[in-house]
Amino acid sequence: MAKKHQDSQKNKKFNHLINEKSPYLLQHADNPVDWYPWGEEAFEKARKEDKPIFLSIGYSTCHWCHVMAHESFEDPEVAKLMNETFISIKVDREERPEIDSLYMSVCQMLTGSGGWPLTILMDADKRPFTAGTYFPKQSRYGRIGMMELIPRIQDFWENKRDSLEASAKDVIEQLQQMEYTPGSEFTIEILDEAFKEASMLFDDKLGGFKGAPKFPTPHKLLFLLRYWRRTNNERALVIVEKTLHAMRNGGIFDHIGFGFHRYSTDSSWLLPHFEKMLYDQALLAIAYIETYQATKNKYYQNVAEEILAYVLRDMTSPLGGFYSAEDADSEGEEGKFYTWSPDEIKKILDEEDSSLFLKVYNFEHGGNFYDQATREKTGTNIPHLKNSIEKIAIDLSIPIDELNKRLDRIRSKLFSTRKNRIHPHKDDKILTDWNGLMIAALALAGRVFEKKEYTIAAQNATNFILENMLAKDYRLSHRFRDGEIAIQGMVDDYAFLIWGLLELYQTTFNERFLKHAISLNASLLKHFWDENKGALFFTPNDGEQLLIRKKEIYDGAIPSGNSVSMLNFIKIARITGNVELEEKVSQINKAFSKTIEQSLIAHTMFLSALEYIYGSSFEVVIVGKLNSDDTSEMLKAIRSNFIPNKIALFVPIGEQTPEISKITDFVHYKEAIDNKATAHVCINRFCKFPTSEIATMLKFLEINKEN
């Protein structure tokens, strides 16, 4: 069998992608299209042969990327036309987010929408003149196909090139006009406006925000939690809780193997786009953890731990870092790995258990999973809940503990069976930015849930990144795969890793993580900060020259590097006393205010930074013996409560020159009372008297006793 595989590989013809490390590029390495990776070789060839460039951007777990690949890029007829007409370039958007961001802006500008696969037609100077997303092989339903598009582009290139050049010139002029115009600094009132916008868009019936498709965007919920904490507006918490329950009950959650799928294609969270992304797991885990802190409802802890169980089981490299994603497709079909027919369930489980499972998880005889292209039922089902397990237990007259035990046992059997199916492709590259998000989630879980395995996993990933992706001059690399470290770090790599390091310090009180966060922040400012207009560029000052050097503030599927950096700057400023960082926060606020006011709900991580600035914020120094009972109890009281706008520092009793005192003089003269664990709490830069009483400390931290 192995020899047969080797022979088939020998007989295959490969294009210029064969030596790449990106799983996405390697998926196209045996296409008959003569693909090149992004680089000067391709651009030089286009100049030499006087051909336009066909740029295709996607990622390895993208369903419609696979569809276009199978339909067109693997088709000899299409490939022949492409090879005659174009120099074709493939880009992995996760490896090169700066290229993707630039040309996605072009696509949205020219067509009014965007998505992946992203298709750009441009010249050898990287100037785009046409854009689109998915193109079928043949024209249909009003959408031009590749067999019609390619000759049309060739005709324009050969006979009407002036019009293409005029189009490219117009695109570049529009790109250059996209520079953000600074405005006035937002005040606290904007947070009320943002809440009103979120409340108006909230889907009271189904959770989430109105319309379809529905994306998790957990940073919207993080903002609402902070708004609720400051204002006590219960509707903000209702929106958060309703949404988190609806997502966990829906088909967007993998009820057999845990973890969340990418998004729901419908408004009821039932029919997901089945890919699983590392960043979604990280941000959703944080949302569930913080909601647990806010409500003390163990349900949210359980969901967070389910997400992390999936990540630690399926998305963790033996080296310590975290993989990027799992595909939606297996065996050429989207969702096949995750869906079940009633007959399958009946074969695996006995009659009593199969009857229970089919009822609880709402199986339909003809299936509830529709083919998204034809809208026809597939005969299979997506397991989902329509009510809470508590309500189901009452309806079925089964004690809740018994029902949970039975469902866990059933899930375990189905999971064991599912393991034998052909698994979706796993994108096993390790990205610094997405790892930073997961480090933050695991560090937070480790301290809130008091579970060392989460803290250890966060430390392992951090050590991997610091040992492999960080140079001595504090420059980060973006991607690791198959032993290769590549691609200059971008703003998200720095911002998200700093976030993770700050969380990890507050979990472990290991000053090493804090030192790295501060040094990386200095490197970020040196290479990304715009000294003229303020805010951070997406790419470094010595990065590849693209058509424009963009800045990002939109908090989309992932929050922007500028938004996260605002929060990092505030925390580091409060730790170190560096007031220049607070001024940088103000400059980011002004730089983007005119853009943000057009859609507040699209910038919720930015709004969370404003909540930190305008709400009560706390600096807490605990002086004590790290593993003593009184210190542990004091830390537990802080960690179990939802106090988002705080930094916590630790000073060990008895050390002459503690390591933390070399980082900040904020801890100087902070001492223990009667050798007991003592809290020094400052609120909005006003310090209370030290206390060894937990109740007094919590009062200073504005935590009500009944919480």
Overall pLDDT score? 93
State the assembly state of the protein chains.
Answer: single chain
Q: Identify the CATH homologous superfamily of the domain at 10-176.
A: Glutaredoxin
* Number of distinct helices: 26
Highest-level CATH class of the domain at 10-176? Alpha Beta
Q: Determine Rg (CA atoms, Å).
A: 27 Å
The beta-strand count equals 19
Architecture (CATH level 2) name of the domain at 10-176: 3-Layer(aba) Sandwich
Widest sheet: strand ordering: 1-3-2-4-5
Percent of residues in helices: 40-55%
The portion of residues forming beta strands comes to 5-15%
Describe the sheet with the most strands: 5 strands, mixed
Provide the CATH topology of the domain at 10-176.
Answer: Glutaredoxin
Question: What is the element layout, followed by pairings?
Answer:
Elements lengths: L1 H10 L11 H5 L7 E3 L2 H10 L3 E6 L4 H11 L2 H10 L1 E6 L4 H15 L6 E5 L5 E5 L13 H14 L1 H16 L12 H13 L16 H14 L2 H16 L13 E2 L7 E2 L2 E2 H18 L2 H17 L10 E2 L2 E2 L2 E2 L7 H7 L2 H10 L28 H8 L3 H19 L7 E2 L2 E2 H17 L3 H17 L8 E5 L2 E5 L2 H18 L2 H18 L32 H16 L2 H18 L7 H11 L3 E7 L4 H12 L5 E7 L25 E6 L2 E2 L6 H7 L7
Parallel strand pairs: 1-3, 2-3, 16-17
Antiparallel strand pairs: 2-4, 4-5, 6-7, 8-9, 9-12, 10-11, 13-14, 14-15, 16-18, 18-19
Structure notes:
With 707 residues, this protein is an alpha+beta fold. Among the domains are: 10-176, Glutaredoxin; 342-420, Arc Repressor Mutant, subunit A, CATH 1.10.10; 442-516, no CATH class; 618-700, Glutaredoxin, CATH 3.40.30. The chain is 49% helix and 10% strand. It has 26 helices and 19 strands. The strands form six sheets. It has a five-stranded mixed beta sheet, sandwiched between helices. A four-stranded mixed beta sheet has the order 17-16-18-19, sandwiched between helices. The chain has a three-stranded antiparallel beta sheet with strand order 8-9-12. A hairpin with a 2-residue loop joins strand 10 and strand 11 (333-334). Helix 19 packs across helix 20. Mean pLDDT is 93; it is low at 1-8.
